[in-house]
Design a protein that fits this description.
Elements lengths: L1 H10 L30 E6 L14 H5 L18 E4 L4 E4 L12 E8 L5 H10 L9 H9 L9 E5 L24 E4 L5 H4 L10 H21 L4 H23 L7 H7 L3 H14 L4 E5 L9 H25 L6 E6 L3 E2 L15 E2 L3 E7 L6 E3 L1 E2 L6 E3 L2 E2 H11 L9 E3 L2 E3 L21
Parallel strand pairs: 1-7, 1-8, 4-12, 4-15, 5-6, 5-7
Antiparallel strand pairs: 2-3, 4-11, 8-11, 9-10, 13-14, 16-17
């Protein structure tokens, strides 16, 4: 059967099951079938970095209004949400007034109100959300996804992370890194605040060297690396750099199209909004449409220790129209059913006033309870899963840890998290590693899967 499979591989076209490099070898990014039927083919993760307040967005708590200004259980002074909640859709799920456009899609969403994480520190929790690890560098969720599935466009990175100026997020490149996985599975970070594809992706094309000459140079680098690996050892950082060069070469034509939103009709651009976040979301949809497997959009600015009544709706307004438009657009194009959409931050906020005593208070960090929603590919829409206590301080019903979330994402992509492995340093690693290789305590959130 092994020889038969090899014969079959040579007969299959590049654009079907396997993709080959220039020498006819199968590419590690060639599309692969997951071991189980997949409900989602691709993922877009909108990361609300900074930790949005759950009790002001997706988790209404009338008790906070009842006890507003009073001490609650020694945890501080209760602070009622300054925002009204309204029921939306056939499901009648309550959503804060700060998200009027996103809320229109509540019947496609499963809102998890019982998320929790380990540590309420931005850098550690951000890396934890993206990699499942709070200390040792581990591969990101996107890297695991394309390690297992490959990607549908061999001329683009399988995993792209979009951010908009302001430097790297907390935790830096760890958030989209491949760690001990081969460098081909790392994410490619793009700054979408730059004007034009040539500035977004610097040096995307060379004014000095032809394409054929670039190809000869890259082939020589690959040959030298093979000699280095044979005589000494494989170097993960060196391989990652070479893969970055290879992807950049292939992207010259493909990226110029995918990142060029001027090719979109005017009404589509206006639907997303002519704002930095609107451009990001429109680019994200074009990337998904072009075959990129995993797209992450950094939509930060949610660290509201003070003046939350003014600052939170300002931030929400920046994402509300673009994300609402993305959901509408994916649905109209028939892509939502096969695209897993995720929105959420790295932890939540306290139901009490920030203890720093600001005149215009906000909320402090809280790891024990927060909200996150998923929609699209395989998600049971119009669902609320889990609950926090009466004040929204801690998950008390069906708590969902970050590892549980990751296991659920893999399940929707067609994988059992216990069996998606990579052997490194003498043992098998999983995305959902807990205390070494013990993954038995991790649970798929089946209640949100259709």
């Amino acid at each position: 059967m092994g020889f038969g499979a090899l014969g079959l591989a040579s007969l299959l076209r590049e654009d079907t099951l396997f993709a080959a490099d220039a020498d006819g070898n199968l590419s590690p990014l060639s599309p692969k079938l997951p071991p189980f039927p997949a409900k989602a083919k691709r993922v877009i993760h909108i990361f609300a970095q900074g930790a949005p307040s759950q009790v002001d967005t997706w988790d209404p708590k009338p008790s906070l209004a009842k006890y507003d200004g009073q001490s609650i259980g020694g945890r501080g002074v209760a602070m009622a949400s300054p925002f009204k909640f309204q029921r939306y859709g056939r499901s009648g799920i309550e959503v804060s007034e700060v998200f009027p456009k996103i809320a229109q899609h509540v019947d496609e969403m499963a809102i998890i109100r019982s998320m929790w994480t380990d540590i309420p520190a931005h850098e550690l929790a951000t890396v934890m959300m993206n990699t499942g690890s709070r200390s040792v560098p581990k591969p990101s969720v996107g890297s695991w996804a394309i390690y297992g599935l490959g990607t549908e466009n061999q001329n683009m990175p399988g995993y792209i992370s979009l951010h908009s100026g302001g430097g790297l997020p907390p935790g830096g490149t760890q958030n989209w890194g491949s760690a001990f996985l081969p460098g081909v599975f790392q994410g490619t970070s793009i700054n979408t605040s730059a004007d034009g594809v040539d500035k977004m992706i610097e040096n995307i094309s060379s004014p000095y060297v032809s394409g054929s000459e670039q190809r000869r140079q890259l082939d020589l680098i690959h040959q030298l690396n093979e000699l280095h690996a044979q005589d000494l050892q494989k170097d993960a950082q060196l391989e990652a750099r070479i893969e970055a060069y290879e992807i950049a070469f292939k992207m010259q034509a493909a990226a110029s199209d995918a990142f060029n939103i001027s090719r979109e009709p005017q009404n589509i651009r206006e639907m997303y909004g002519m704002t930095p976040q609107g451009r990001q979301m429109l680019i994200a949809r074009r990337l998904l449409e072009s075959g990129v497997r995993f797209v992450q959009v950094w939509a930060g600015g949610w660290d509201h220790h003070q003046d939350i009544e003014k600052r939170l709706p300002e931030r929400a307004t920046e994402i509300d129209q673009p994300l609402g438009a993305l959901m509408t657009d994916l649905k109209q194009r028939g892509m939502l059913d096969s695209t897993l959409v995720i929105w959420g931050g790295e932890f939540g906020r306290t139901p009490t006033k920030d203890r720093n005593g600001y005149a215009n208070p906000g909320r402090d960090h809280n790891a024990k309870g927060f909200s996150l929603w998923m929609a699209g590919g395989g998600v049971k829409g119009g669902t609320v899963y889990g609950a926090t206590d009466e004040f929204g301080a801690a998950a008390v019903q069906n708590p969902v840890h970050i590892h549980d979330l990751h296991a659920t994402i893999l399940k929707l992509l067609g994988f059992d998290h216990k069996n998606l492995l990579y052997r490194y340093n003498g043992r098998d690693f999983h995305l959902t590693d807990v205390a070494g290789s013990n993954v038995t305590s991790v649970n798929v959130v089946n209640g949100i899967i259709a």
